[in-house]
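Hypothesis: this fold can be encoded by more than one sequence.
Test: take the structure tokens below, design a sequence, compare later.
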């Protein structure tokens, strides 16, 4: 089963971290999502908590 995109259609990228403030992916990750393996998608989703902290501390 394919891993669903975390996109919430709020594409605004933080200038310092490069993360989308909606889904916490980088622009490159968002662009390449459909081409990624499920393993890579899971890796990105598993980094969500760390990325949230990074955005919160900026």
């Amino acid at each position: 089963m394919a891993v669903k995109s975390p996109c919430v259609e709020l594409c605004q990228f933080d200038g310092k971290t490069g993360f989308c403030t909606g889904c916490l992916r980088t622009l490159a990750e968002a662009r390449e999502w459909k081409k990624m393996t499920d393993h890579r998608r899971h890796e990105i989703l598993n980094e969500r908590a760390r990325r949230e902290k990074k955005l919160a501390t900026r």
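The chain has one domain: 12-58. The longest helix spans residues 38-46.
Hypothesis status: open.
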